[in-house]
Design goal:
75 residues, alpha+beta, Pemi-like Protein 1, Chain: D, two-stranded antiparallel ribbon, 4 strands, elongated
Length: 75
């Protein structure tokens, strides 16, 4: 899917207006945060937070490796 958007003036800044259909597909609401990620092919605008995902992977690994210690701490 390719969606063209236009850069417009918003106060003293510039912004992109996302079509309602795109907002619905991405499950976004006004005020939600998006992440602009530079890729080899250009830029990706996504609600997905790559830093949070990496932290979740590390947390999962720690919980698996230190399962017994975490059980003791929970007592």
């Amino acid at each position: 899917m390719v969606t063209k958007v236009k850069i417009t003036t918003i106060g003293n800044s510039a912004g992109v207006i996302l079509p309602k259909e795109l907002m619905q597909r991405l499950r976004l609401e006004k005020g939600d945060q998006l992440h602009l990620i530079e890729t080899a092919d250009g830029f990706e605008l996504t609600p997905y937070d790559p830093e949070f995902a990496e932290q979740a992977i590390v947390a999962d690994r720690v919980m698996r490796e230190d399962r017994d210690v975490l059980r003791k701490l929970a007592e």
